[in-house]
Amino acid sequence: MLIHYIGSRKSWILLFAGLLGLTDLLIFIEQGISVEFTSLLYLNALYIILFLVFFLWRYKKETKYVAAVLKLQEVMDSDWVESLPEPDNELDRITNDVLREAAYQFKRKLAQSKQAQMIENDFTASWIHEVKTPLTAMKLILDARTRKSDPDLRRLESEWLRIHLLIDRQLYMSRLPALESDYMLEQVSIQRLAAEEIRELAPWCMEKNLAVSIEGEDAMVVTDRKWCRFIIRQLLTNAIKYSPEDKAITFMTTVTEKQRVILDLIDEGPGIQPHDLPRIFDKGFTGENGRIHNAATGLGLYLAQTVAEKIGVALDVLPGQTLGTTMRITFSDPNAFETIRRGQENNIPL
Prior knowledge:
The chain is of the alpha+beta class and 350 residues long.
């Protein structure tokens, strides 16, 4: 900071050097003034020492506020305005007022933006609920038809399911920012959660003639049923979308020695290219397979990972597979979930 201060006070230094040089010149050319050379050196040294003392004093005084602000920047939090140091001169007071006004304007615009987002989310949620009414009526009409073997009817039911899934995902997206207030832990069967999603997506599986099975040892996990089903639904939707016809999709459950419950979703699709693996959970990333399937949005895995982080489960893809894809959901031991539960009861954000 001293170097920057010296650079900003070059005019002071040049003025002092000019005045000192002018004084020495006048002493040399003035015939009526007789000064010994050693006395002149002593006078110059005295002036330089006095100037250095003055310069350092002004440096300490003028940079005290700036140094405190820079230190505050290193540990800046949401209440940084309240931690601003007290100014001790007019220039620092002006700087202080500008910083406080900038913080106030930022908070005001942020509050307006959040309010507008809340209104938009409420509107979206309301619109989705309105759209679900005719969709439900359409589903009842389709279920009432007796000719279930009709290919056109099955294709219509499959397309209805796609619309339903898109709208349902949009509803979850609108609720995602407030997930903490919609979070409820309970003990559930992991295979039962998978079975519920299989039944939900059965028409789509039948259209592609996909065999979906559940294997392994069932286990009870402590999690939020609704949001956990949402994660499974996103993974299963991707598996169905990218699996060729007449293939198989398998849910495999495993309990490790450390009592961790693992749910693997294994498909026989084209797999994920190695160079795409580090980015599959990025928002909007579709990858090489997504470019082939124009319907890919790059949101499914991103939303699944976002929800997984919030509810305390690990979501990964197993690398090194030449064919097919294995998505893995790992549920931690009960103690970790108890920490989440206590945080929920104490209104601690997850």
